[in-house]
Design goal:
oxidoreductase, 10 helices, thiamine biosynthesis, 29% helix, EC 1.4.3.19, alpha/beta, FAD/NAD(P)-binding domain, D-Amino Acid Oxidase, Chain A, domain 2, 8-stranded mixed sheet, glycine oxidase, globular, 19 strands, binds flavin-adenine dinucleotide, Gly_oxidase_ThiO, 6-stranded mixed sheet
């Protein structure tokens, strides 16, 4: 394929849209990235940045394989972005400790051991040897040696700078109002600035995605799941790496702050932070890391994860809307899943065999359930 004569419009400039634009532009495809606001102002910069392929997966299957593919791609992908943009996305390879505070949690964690890779069970004293600040009341936990982290805001800055260098056209503050269909094929987008056409239209509109696909009769049940977070700072470091327990995680960043996350609420498109919710989250964090009780509050925020009923993202093309490629519904794991999504969607657009089978993620599956 002569990629230089091929063009693509990408709707939505969060991590997923930016990564797809990155991969396509690197392959020589002319890309236009369109967002209703500024790039990366929604879920993608609300995230904590855990790359939790193992800590976030509760059973083997297609989702786990997708997570593992992305985990394997992450280091080289983030280095490439760093090189081209000259901005570090702050990839830190330090693993994640997943502590059990209750026996049911301990049992669930141990039940993963027969199938999960890169995990070992640590006793309470082994956990405390790694993280002396955590509560001695934990019942032990799993160490996920390959679950690393990145700084989502730095990653977003780096991707944006890199996209400019790669010649991607970026149209911010340009809401897409509708998809243009001609002779049964999607071939463009309608905006207040006019209509734009391309060989490929790729929709990555996060939690807002279904408002554009519903009018086509393409049912993609994607809905917002609010996550409230807190950032705190302590005078001296109290944590070496990321610690995670049921309903709460604490991710230390290079600037000395720690992100505490996150709630999961189906509350529409409201992004307010509520005192009772944030204080409940903080209580969970203090239970895991008691010295946080004295921490300085830096900020609180909320973001809207794009959720799906079966927990799997929608990735691929649909028989309902030829010409349209979908990459939405990455829920709790869009930062982790970005490099794999970018690679797989690029393979689809170039007509190549995809590295993994995309059938479980098909946009057509929603009609079957
Ligand atoms: C609190 C919180 C913590 C998280 N922590 C992690 C984590 O540690 N690790 C991890 O892997 N994931 C994490 N996630 C999940 C991750 O942030 C999301 O899965 C990911 O950001 C989704 O990316 P996206 O590009 O699909 O969506 P978004 O970042 O929401 O981007 C969608 C974009 O589409 C644009 N858009 C929507 N409609 C239109 C339209 N009509 N026209 C033009 N543009 C449009 C929006 O303006 C937006 O910029 C977290 C999420 C939250 C909220």
């Amino acid at each position: 394929m002569n990629t230089r004569s091929t063009s693509a419009i990408i709707i939505g400039g969060g991590i997923i849209g930016c990564t797809i634009a990155w991969e396509l532009a690197r392959s020589g495809i002319r890309c236009t990235l369109v967002d209703k606001g500024a790039l990366n102002q929604e879920a993608s910069t609300a995230a904590a940045g855990m790359l939790g392929a193992q800590v976030e997966t509760h059973h083997p299957g297609a989702f786990y394989e997708l997570c593992r593919l992305s985990q394997q791609l992450y280091r080289d992908w983030s280095e490439e972005i760093h090189q081209i943009s000259a901005i570090s996305p702050q990839y830190i390879a330090q693993g994640i400790l997943r502590a059990a505070l209750h026996t049911d949690d301990e049992q669930e964690l141990k039940s993963r051991l027969p199938w999960i890779q890169n995990a070992e069970w640590l006793s309470t004293s082994e956990m405390l040897a790694m993280e002396p600040g955590i509560s001695p009341h934990i019942l032990g936990g799993l160490r996920f040696a390959q679950d690393h982290q990145i700084h989502p805001v730095q990653l977003a800055k780096a991707l944006q700078a890199g996209l400019h260098k790669l010649g991607c056209e970026i149209r911010e503050w340009t809401p897409v109002l509708g998809l243009i269909e001609r002779q049964g094929r999607i071939e463009g987008v309608r905006t207040a600035e006019g209509s734009f056409y391309a060989d490929h239209v790729i929709i990555c509109a996060g939690a807002w995605g279904s408002s554009l696909t519903d009018p086509l009769g393409l049912e993609l049940p994607i809905f917002p799941v609010k996550g409230q977070c807190i950032s705190v700072r302590t005078e001296a470091p109290v944590l070496q790496g990321t610690v995670f327990t049921q309903g709460c995680y604490i991710v230390p960043k290079l600037d000395g702050s720690m992100i505490i996350g996150a709630t999961q609420e189906e509350a529409g498109f409201n992004k307010c932070c509520h005192v009772n919710v944030v204080s409940d989250l903080f209580g969970k964090a203090v239970k895991l890391l008691p010295s946080l009780g004295q921490a300085e509050l830096v900020s609180t925020w909320a973001g809207l994860r794009p959720g799906t009923r079966d927990g799997l993202p929608f990735m691929g093309t649909s028989t309902q809307a030829p010409g349209l490629t979908v990459a939405m519904g990455h829920y709790r794991n869009g930062i982790l899943l970005a490099p794999a999504t970018g690679k797989l969607i690029k393979q689809l657009i170039l007509g190549e065999q995809t590295t993994i089978d995309l059938t479980p993620f098909s946009p057509d599956r929603a009609r079957a359930v």
